[in-house]
Amino acid sequence: MNSQRVANEILDKRGARYISRERLPMPGDVASRGKRLVFMPYGNMWKWQRKVIHEIIGPGNRNVFAPMQDIESKALIYQYLTEPDLWNQANARYASSLIMSLVFGRRTKMGDANVDRIIETNNEIMQMFEPGSNLIDSFPFLVNIPLPHSIQPWRWWGDRVYKASLANWNEEFEGLAERQRQGKSVTCFISEFQRLGKDKALDRESMMFLGGTLIEAGSDTTRVALNQLLAGVALFPESKVQARKELDEVCGANAERLPDASDIARLPYVRAVAKEVLRWNISLPEIAHSLIEDDTFEGYNLPVGTNVIWNSWGVHMGASEYKDPDRFWPERFLNEDLDKPIKGHLAFGAGRRICPGWVIASNSLHLLIARVMYCFDFHPIDGHPIPVGKPFEIGVEKPYEVKVTPRSQAHADLIQRECAAAANIV
Ligand code: HEM
């Protein structure tokens, strides 16, 4: 699907039909045993898990998790101030720590061993998406042939990733159980899940996959969005000037105080930046939906089982969809849909499989953008042009070079005063 019009017609308006996922035997069956929500076909288990996620981290509970967004964004800007060259690792730490706090109630530092292992297995899952990376996604019938394990190399890889994922998540479950025994646990997705008795409905392995999938789905995406922000502001500094007009009005032109969550309603430009960050030079891949009954669309016959996918780069960077698409220009989102974070782009997908973390993700972005744009300047570095016009690399290495500096001494002092404690992760 090469336009938002068609994607919305199909995925939104006819969403109940386009609700399943493309069958990907390697990441879905072998490496997940059908238990990773992202690859799960439509059915009772998928419906139940989506409902529980909505209940626990949906719009009704946004305030429960707001303190985590507050403390992690403070820790991030403190790291920008004190270790500016490590901005990429700071972004990764922020994203991992936020989602880990949300799911297991545990903050994480740079170089956290289990986070690194989780990122590694997640990268392997992403590699499984790449065309030609494995035989069974091209020839799915192979997965059902009872061949000896020794002649199925795809199973060696898939089984290893499956076992590694479970071992990583088991460590988090054990850690949480220990904190609960010691009376040191904080409210998080899994503790709410247990409090509501939802754990009674799932075997332990499925519960581990549910928690683990949230970690996987919520960390890289947030990190990549942050990388877009820094590049967009560095290349198009007029966005910073506009953002600061409203930020200075609300928080003072001389670093009087940090923006906080209660300011966001008065910061429309910041909310527009969040949408532009998700659109501009989009780097994350899309995931196909699959049709559960026959359909016809504008002359095409689409039988049950057809996979449909939106062309994320083509839509978001296409001149037929957006004026001057290469320009990081948040003003384009200052319209009647500004307060609908999922409208005007497809970065969270669409329809019944739309990202269930979009409320949390949007709130995180709003607070972060307000604080980062209020306090920091970003500049391209001579001899290291920021490569736009194709998606940034989404691996853990720096996708580009950028210079991070505090906006003024007063802003640096403000960060020292208000954020040092948040960066002290024990
Ligand atoms: C900037 C941040 C994020 C972006 C850009 C993003 C984007 C996406 C996209 C494009 C999809 C596929 C949607 C579709 O098929 O229509 C998705 C699915 C998903 N996302 Fe996110 N996401 C983000 C953050 C999060 C967070 C914070 C969480 C968890 C708290 C999360 C959990 C999930 C899950 C569980 C799925 C699978 C849904 C399903 O298959 O039914 N995401 N996300």
From TrEMBL:
GO MF annotations, alphabetized: heme binding; iron ion binding; monooxygenase activity; oxidoreductase activity, acting on paired donors, with incorporation or reduction of molecular oxygen
PANTHER family: P450, PUTATIVE (EUROFUNG)-RELATED, P450, PUTATIVE (EUROFUNG)-RELATED-RELATED
Cofactor (UniProt): heme
Matches recorded under PROSITE patterns: CYTOCHROME_P450
Family: Belongs to the cytochrome P450 family.
Key words of the record: Heme, Iron, Metal-binding, Monooxygenase, Oxidoreductase
Stated name of the protein: Related to cytochrome P450
Residues reported in the UniProt entry to bind heme: 355
